[in-house]
């Protein structure tokens, strides 16, 4: 949520073990099905509904992107069903 606007999102919290040199924990929220949405440097309220999976190290970018698609599809299904 930013201001009065609310978007369903897939959220990642944790480390980024797939890529070397990325340190610390991060919170990354991907607003589902939004194009050209730029919320960088804006305060946002994040609400959590479901936990989809653990953070894992992938063999590279392609397997990570494939899993992200699965995660986003599942998040869409959950947010649509519980909206």
Can you put this structure into words, describing what you see?
The chain is an alpha+beta fold and 83 residues long. It has one domain (9-81). Helix content is 25%, strand content 14%. It is built from one helix and two strands, in the order E-E-H. It has one helix at residues 61-81; strands at 9-14, 26-31. A two-stranded antiparallel ribbon has the order 1-2. The longest helix has 21 residues, at 61-81. The mean pLDDT is 92.
Give the uncertain stretches in residue-range form.
none
Counting DSSP H or I runs of 4 or more residues, the number of helices is 1
Radius of gyration: 14 Å
* Average pLDDT rating: 92
């Amino acid at each position: 949520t930013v201001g009065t606007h609310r978007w369903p999102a897939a959220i990642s919290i944790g480390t980024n073990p797939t890529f070397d040199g990325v340190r610390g924990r991060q919170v990354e929220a991907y607003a589902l099905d939004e194009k050209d949405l730029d919320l960088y440097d804006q305060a946002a309220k994040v609400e959590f509904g479901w936990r989809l999976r653990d953070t894992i190290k992938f063999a590279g970018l392609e397997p990570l992107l494939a899993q992200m698609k699965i995660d986003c599809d599942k998040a869409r299904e959950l947010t649509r069903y519980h909206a």
